[in-house]
Each structure stands twice: as structure tokens, then as C-alpha cells.
Write a structure and sequence with these properties.
The protein has helices spanning 24-37, 51-59, 87-94, 108-115, 119-134, 147-153, 155-167, 184-197, 213-222, 244-254, 262-265, 268-278, 300-308, 335-344, 354-368, 377-387, 436-448, 500-525; strands at 5-8, 41-45, 69-75, 99-105, 139-145, 172-177, 202-206, 227-230, 296-297, 326-327, 396-405, 413-422, 425-433, 459-467, 478-485, 490-497. The protein is elongated. The longest helix is centred in the C-terminal third of the chain and has 26 residues, at 500-525. Among the domains are: 40-226, Aldolase class I (TIM Barrel), CATH 3.20.20; 353-387 and 457-526, Double Stranded RNA Binding Domain (2-Layer Sandwich); 395-451, Double Stranded RNA Binding Domain, CATH 3.30.160. By secondary structure, the chain is of the alpha/beta class. Strand 9 (296-297), helix 13 (300-308) and strand 10 form a beta-alpha-beta unit. Strands 1-2-3-4-5-6-7-8 form an eight-stranded parallel beta barrel, surrounded by eight helices. Strands 11-12-13 form a three-stranded antiparallel beta sheet, with helices on one face.
Length: 526
């Protein structure tokens, strides 16, 4: 069986993604999560490039790392100076890591056009840089930048560069598809040729500009590469890097390579969500293996089949990667969807119960009017419980009013006044907000927290508005989707109306009601 070493570059490559900027604390927390999942190497950053990375390498020494080797990244020495005096190389040594990775140019285009040195000087630069590092660092890896483009242009020179790196003491030669333009069959052809000439451990570092980084990485492993570099969720410059959240399950489940343990594999979905959260990016629900839609079923035929055998429409068992099967409800749903959702919600209903058909008809009618429950399962559960007569009313609206005011060049001000009834008692309060919906949300929770203190845990995660009917301008029907969370869960709710405040109110009240229902059920079972 192949012995594969996983090399994560999220803290450097991922941090170069547009819209991502990890703090030192973020990087330390991600390091701990990567270690828990079983990464063999965690590339912490480039200590010679910025003070933040220098500080990271100081602070990571205080972290309890059980599995991984933290790695520093940098370049070969600058041309024209002795390697012993090169600041970049010495910064790498002073980072104090057990492993270091440096990159060098393997494409003659870059040697001549970017470095502006001779091809022979570049070979010497690579060899001397690695030899100097190897005197001070136990493991030294060499990233052959633009290797595949360099090999296509001039194979003899690309291979000579690998030989120079090997003679300098490189422990692994990592072949980089830096522009992300290589196809899987080219990876196979070039790697097969390289292995005939180079007897050394090889690695792969693929970018995703052709949407092939995962495929290219797996092809490289098939051709003998033993180190696989990538990032969590495929984050990285331009179109990103090879996605380790897809590579790892494919290696372990499909290719039978035990790169991490079964227990660690079950944490891969949690890792994906964790990095999205710290990056302050929305989760990609359609992401393979770890996305919330990766094992979601909508069509009635699909639902009916997976109820009998999940492998009819699922390529792996979702729990193996820490994910779950989801049955969606929509206008394409059948009785099987309704029954499956009832089972998921622990609602007792039989297949022959007339209410099943009534719920299905109600669902299809609502979706014709613009409701959508695929991202609002909390609203659907509440509607199902209401149809069965088992949904408790936690509060009733007496009335609300929202005022928006703008004076001259000042920012608009929103204020909501609300009156609700809880158990015969009326609460009347007001709150300000960043916009009318936020003001209404603040006022509602302010009124209810006196009766339900647990609502202090609730926070709004996402708010989306979609115009449903064209041609009617500002009088168009709108759908509001709200995602809400507390310390343990997240849930979605929906509202539809010609009035955006009314649609928002529907989604907000569903959100609050679902929180109270969830806590009540948890308390009863606990």
C-alpha cells in the first residue's frame, strides 16, 4: 500500500485568496484543527515575507501539535549573493521548524524573463540554497515551480533542475502545476517519464485554473507521488488550489490509501466548515463530500430509492466524512419526501394518513406562490407540526410598526416598535437597528427575552431577498430567506409577500419559534 503524506498549505496559499485574511489567532486555531484531522505537514507561512508570519512561527511553538510537522515556506536565495548571507534562507532557519519548503524556477521562460540569470546559474542557485538549509533543518522540500509547463517547453532542463535539487539534499521533489493548465493525461505522461530518470520521493502541487486540481493530484498519486499538497476547501489565488477536502476522501475511500484514520476522516466536514467560518465566507453547500447538499435528495424518485438503499444515489456513506443525508422538500417532492422528513423530525405519521397528501398539496401550492423550503427546513418542520396540531404557540403578535428616517446627509435611522402577547401578558417595546429588518429583529427578541432568556444565544447569520415576480417593479413579490444560529446549530426559515417587511417578519418569527421548539424538545429528551 502507498504511504502518502498530506501537506496542507491553507495558511499560506489559502491566505492569498481574494477576500481572505487570516489573523494570527485564526492561523493558530486552524493549525490545531488541521492537526486533529491528521495532516502530516502544515505550511504556516513565509517568515521572510511579513511580520505576521514571523509572529505565527513564534506562537505556534506553544501549541500542542500531536500529528503534524509545522513547515516554513520560502524561495531560493536571491541571485548574486552568498547563500549564507541570504535573508530569506536565514529567516527560514530562524523559524525553528522541523521542515522547510522552498520553491525555485523550473521553466526556462521564468529563469530568463523573471530572474534574468543564466540557466546554469539557476541550477546552482537551487542546489546551493537547499544544501545550506539542509545543514540546519531536518527535512527540506523543493517545490519545482511551473514544472509541467517547464517540462513541456524544455524537458531536459526541467529534469536537470530536479537533479540539482536532489544533489542539494532535497528530501522530496514537489512538481507544481502553478498555472493550473495541465490535463490529467499530461500529468500521467510527464510523471511517468520523470520517474524513469529521477529516483527520489516526488510530490504534487496543483492549482485549479482548469478545474482539474483534484483530478491531477489523484493522477499524480497513481503515478507514484507520495506527497500531496493542497488547501482546505481549495482556497488559493485565482481559481484556488487542489481541495484536500475532496482529495483525502478519494484517497482513503476510493483508492484504499490509509492517509488518515477513519476517525480523522469523519472530522473533514467539520474542518471545512471551520475554515469557511474563520475566513468569513459562506459555506459552499454544493461542495463534494463536505457540502450540505452533497448528500441531499430532492426528486421523489431519488428519495424513494435512497429510503430502500442509500447507495442508489450516494457514492459513499455520508457519515464516513462527517456529513449527513438530507431529504429536501419542494414542488418536485413526493409522499416519500414528506414521510422521510417526518421521520427526521421525530413526527409520528403513517404513510396512509390523509394528512400526508394534504401536506404535499399544500407544499406544492406554497412553492407556486414563491415559498422555497430547500434552504428553510425549519419553516417546513413548523408547518408540518402545525398541520398535525402539535405545534405550540409561544407568542402572538398584537402589532408592530417600523419607522425609517433620513435627514439630509446623515445615515438613515430605523426604529421598530412591537407589541406581543405571551401567556396572557402583553409586552410592548422598541429597538433601533441597522435597517428596518434588523430593527424589527432586535425589537422582537427584546420583547421575548423577558419570557425566554435562551433567545439571547440567537444570532442572525444570513439574510437573503429575492424578487419573484418581474414586471411589477417595487410592487413585486419577494422571498426572504434567513439563516439563524445559536451555540450549537444553524437553521433556515422563509417568508414570502409583496411587502418585504412582512416577508421578513414571517421568516423572523419562524426562526424564533424554531429555536424555542428545539430547546423544548432537547429539554424533554434530556
Amino acid at each position: 500500500m502507498k504511504h502518502i503524506r498530506l501537506y496542507d498549505a491553507t495558511l499560506r496559499e489559502g491566505n492569498q485568496t481574494e477576500d481572505i485574511s487570516f489573523s494570527i489567532e485564526d492561523k493558530l486555531r486552524i493549525t490545531q484543527q488541521l492537526d486533529e484531522v491528521g495532516m502530516h505537514y502544515i505550511e504556516g507561512g513565509w517568515p521572510g515575507s511579513n511580520p505576521k508570519d514571523l509572529q505565527y512561527f513564534k506562537e505556534v511553538k506553544n501549541c500542542r501539535i500531536k500529528n503534524a510537522i509545522v513547515t516554513a515556506f520560502g524561495s531560493t536565495a536571491k541571485p548574486g549573493a552568498a547563500v549564507e548571507k541570504d535573508k530569506n534562507l536565514n529567516d527560514l532557519i530562524h523559524a525553528g521548524t522541523e521542515a522547510v519548503t522552498i520553491f525555485g524556477k523550473s521553466w526556462d521562460l521564468h529563469v530568463k524573463g523573471v530572474l534574468r540569470i543564466s540557466l546554469e546559474d539557476n541550477l546552482r542557485l537551487v542546489q546551493e540554497s537547499l544544501a545550506y538549509l539542509k545543514q540546519h533543518v531536518p527535512q527540506v522540500f523543493f517545490d519545482a515551480e511551473h514544472f509541467f509547463d517547464g517540462y513541456k517547453a524544455r524537458p531536459d532542463y526541467a529534469v536537470s533542475l530536479l537533479r540539482s535539487a536532489l544533489s542539494g539534499g532535497a528530501d522530496c521533489l514537489v512538481l507544481c502545476d502553478t498555472n493550473g493548465g495541465t490535463l490529467p493525461y499530461e500529468i500521467h505522461r510527464i510523471l511517468s517519464a520523470v520517474r524513469k530518470e529521477i529516483e527520489a520521493p516526488l510530490g504534487i502541487h496543483a492549482h485549479n485554473d482548469s478545474d482539474l486540481a483534484v483530478a491531477n493530484s489523484l493522477a499524480a498519486v497513481e503515478c507514484g507521488c507520495t506527497q500531496v499538497q493542497g488547501t482546505v476547501n481549495g482556497c488559493g489565488e485565482r481559481c484556488g488550489n487542489a481541495n484536500l477536502c475532496s482529495i483525502i476522501p478519494n484517497l482513503k475511500i476510493k483508492m484504499g490509501i490509509d492517509c488518515i484514520s477513519d476517525e480523522q476522516l469523519r472530522k473533514i466536514s467539520e474542518l471545512s466548515r471551520f475554515v469557511y467560518e474563520l475566513a468569513n465566507l459562506p459555506h459552499n453547500k454544493h461542495q463534494p463530500f463536505v457540502g450540505s447538499s452533497a448528500f441531499a435528495h430532492k426528486a421523489g424518485v431519488h428519495v424513494s430509492a435512497v429510503q430502500r438503499r442509500s447507495d442508489t444515489y450516494e457514492h459513499i456513506e455520508p457519515g464516513r466524512v462527517g456529513n449527513t443525508q438530507r431529504i429536501l422538500v419542494s414542488d418536485q417532492s413526493g409522499r416519500a419526501n414528506i414521510l422521510q422528513k417526518a421521520q427526521q423530525f421525530n413526527i409520528d405519521i403513517q404513510s396512509h394518513d390523509p394528512l400526508v397528501q394534504e401536506m404535499l398539496a399544500d407544499l406544492k401550492d406554497l412553492e407556486r406562490h414563491g415559498f422555497q423550503f430547500e434552504g428553510a427546513e425549519a419553516s417546513f418542520e413548523l408547518r408540518m407540526r402545525k398541520a398535525l396540531g402539535v405545534q405550540k404557540r409561544y407568542f402572538d403578535l398584537v402589532g408592530f410598526r417600523v419607522i425609517n428616517e433620513k435627514k439630509q446627509e446623515s445615515e438613515p435611522v430605523s426604529e421598530a416598535t412591537i407589541m406581543v402577547k405571551v401567556g396572557g401578558k402583553i409586552e410592548h417595546t422598541a429597538a433601533m437597528g441597522n435597517g428596518p429588518v434588523n430593527a424589527l429583529d432586535n425589537a422582537l427578541r427584546k420583547a421575548l427575552e423577558k419570557f425566554y432568556p435562551e433567545l439571547k444565544q440567537v444570532h442572525l447569520i444570513d439574510y437573503k431577498v429575492r424578487v419573484l415576480t418581474g414586471g411589477e417593479g417595487t410592487a413585486s413579490r419577494v422571498r426572504v430567506l434567513i439563516e439563524t444560529g445559536d451555540r450549537h446549530d444553524q437553521w433556515g426559515t422563509v417568508g414570502v409577500s409583496e411587502n418585504i417587511i412582512e416577508a421578513s417578519w414571517q421568516a423572523l418569527t419562524d426562526s424564533i419559534t424554531y429555536k424555542l421548539l428545539k430547546d423544548e424538545i432537547k429539554g424533554a429528551s434530556g
